Amino acid sequence: MGPQQGxxxxxxxxxxxHTAARDHVRSIPGMNVRTxxxxxxxxxxxxxNFVEVDMTEHTVSPATRAVDGYQVPAAGRWxxxxxxxxxxxxxxxxxxxxxxxxxxxxxxxxxxxxDPADSRVDVxxxxxxxxxGFDQRDEHLRSPDFFDVSRHPDASFTGEVTDWTGNTAKxxxxxxxxxxxxxxxxxxxxxxxxxxxWGSERAVFSARTEIDRxxxxxxxxxVLESGGILVSRKIQIEIEAEAVFQxxxx
Length: 250
Description:
Elements: H1 10-26, E1 31-38, E2 41-48, H2 56-59, E3 64-67, E4 70-73, E5 76-80, E6 86-93, E7 97-103, E8 106-112, E9 120-126, E10 130-131, H3 135-142, E11 154-165, E12 168-177, E13 180-195, E14 201-212, E15 234-246
Antiparallel strand pairs: 1-2, 3-4, 5-8, 5-15, 6-7, 6-15, 7-10, 8-9, 9-11, 11-12, 12-13, 13-14, 14-15
């Protein structure tokens, strides 16, 4: 059989498609088109040149800076975001089972100094917002046996950084619960920075410490027949916080 005949106009369509594809490739930044002859055929090769780009200037945010080779939050006022901050505590039931709770009413300010070691924190916690996932236990915690929220609705913490090394720090301050003030030291870590879709700059921190609740007069307990106690004295405090940068004047 002889060669098959193409559809009328097929060659023109093919040429048009080839030309459009060639023009598209040529429009790609860094793309070079080379034409040479090979075995009587015209061959085009497309070479994409990769250019090394210094991205440093594109990753620097006005809400961060470098100190001793580490990225840290910019100096200034950072408002704690209650919707993305978790203040949790962990105790033990029968001295064995971990019981977790949290406070959902949290607000405060972090003021980062020109020297990060000169930073300070002020936080208020609404004690009625305690949530352990069990209503009966939560009501007991709100009662005079524990937080006595009708007389002491808020707890507070005020602290200052005493040591900032890399992305970690010691935060030394005073925690007030049921009107009793006691010293507390937290281990703090700066986890990083993020720009949210609404134009705000956020810094993320975590903090940990352990306290003895009886230091604040929270002494309610029950002695078990086995010789132990119902609720542990030692309480772990775990904090995850997002703070929003407040430009001067806000």
